[in-house]
Amino acid sequence: MKMTPLITSAVMHFGEMGSRWGFNRTVGQMLALIALNEDPITAQEIADALNISRGNVSMGLKELQSWRLIKTQIVPGERKDFFVPAGSIWELANRVFEERKKREIDPTLSLLRDLLLDTPSNSNEEHAQQTLAEIHDLLESVTAWSQELQTLGPEKLNTLMKLGASVGRILEFKDKLVPGKTTAN
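RESULT FIELD:
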């Protein structure tokens, strides 16, 4: 399989972004290649396009399947497995968020809850617990907010994002109308 310059640029960039999303460069490249390919793609085609070993491809495909980002597709008359994205870009983005939440945010919230149940032994630990409580509350709020955003769907989310700056101006205007009140209250 020969990649065009446009697809090569995108695949290479997705590889760099992969580490920020929670998986390695090669897995990011594989996801991009599968998502950008018009037709289902085989493991050998992935290996050839990215110039990587079949073993590396197999491990990457397993990881992408564990994240529920790709799926196999049967091609009539073929014995090979073919791979396609496991949904729309919106669904893939939601799955990456869900997996990162499970792997990063949920364990952090669990640890914070445990630490907040401990009885502080001195004023420094009391201060530390207050700070940890703020972190916990922030993570809980951000998580709840992002889960709400996920339920909106792409069309409503686009509308909400377009309203973003307007909402900020409305909140600033409200603060001017109600002295002593801020949007943080």
